[in-house]
Amino acid sequence: MRNKLSLLWLLAMPTVAQQPPIRHVFTIVLENKSFDETFGPNSPAPYLSRQLTAQGELLTNYYAIGHNSLDNYIALVSGQAPNIATQSDCQVYLDFIPGALLQVDINGQVLGQGCVFPAGVQTIANQFAARQLSWRAYMEDMSSNCLHPALNTLDQTQTAKVGDQYAARHNPFVYFHSIIDTPSCAAGDVPLAQLPGDLSQYATTPNYVFITPNLCHDGHDSPCVNGEPGGLVSADAFLRQWVPQILASPAYQSDGLLLIVFDEAEFGASNTDTTACCNELPGPNSPLPGITGPGGGRVGAVVLSPFVPPGTVAATPYNHYSLLRTIEDIFGLDHLGFAAQPGLKSFGLDVFLSIP
User: Fold this and answer.
1) CATH level 2 (architecture), domain 24-352
2) How confident is the model over 283-323, as pLDDT tens digits?
């Protein structure tokens, strides 16, 4: 019966759209793990690697776009490629240079260096707001709304502290003047503690949700400053706590899509992955997105939705720009930055529908 209904739904869809009627997208971003470690047979994250993949779909060839962390977060929400400052995770919260004089190349890439992009650079949050769609970013351990360093000062959130493991560099929305210079930042960039209340009703759940765990629960630190094990063990525990709340929400059950991705693959002295996919271009501001290679490595991703057949696998190559393009296509938005790259695929029928 499911296959017959799915076929009828497919035939009723416009051929150019190839997207299900999703109205709520949830994205959870974890940290610094390569595909084999996360989804291999000895994974320390059995909830993610086995239980959630059984409930949804595993993207086996999903890639990050650069190293280190921040440039991947920037790409996920704006399509902007790495520059030298974002590749270093912006230890200093530098204003973009040049700022007022916005120059953009043929791929929608703003020319220059820095951390906080000029007001003319748009994000998916700006796109949603322009269409009168709601958005919110939920940050674990963020002590106040829209928390970020003062311009051109040291970022004091680079290192976790007991009781405060928030990292501004994992909160991409505070790196755009188009957000931080407006009331939308305080309204939309909020502590994670607000999520349960927002999920309680369809009407209060934002159309676009971006969730960042703290430096322990995203898998970044291991062990953590508070004594937790960190790594994939603590990331899996975070998912066990929060994913069921999302899946039980009226918005998800009606028309939701949950994406669980990693910002980048391993990048260190003993284990480095700088592979790329999808004809990724370097952009004008840094010669190599992966610092020592073309990309951010193979990380994999998990997709859950009422419109995704459970227990399926897609081998199509995708990356962070593909994910951004997919969300834009679902909501009928223009493509930002490298999400508009010719030939780039958004998630298609391999993800949202499987007919034997």
Assistant:
1) 3-Layer(aba) Sandwich (3.40)
2) 999 999 999 999 999 999 999 999 999 999 999 999 999 99
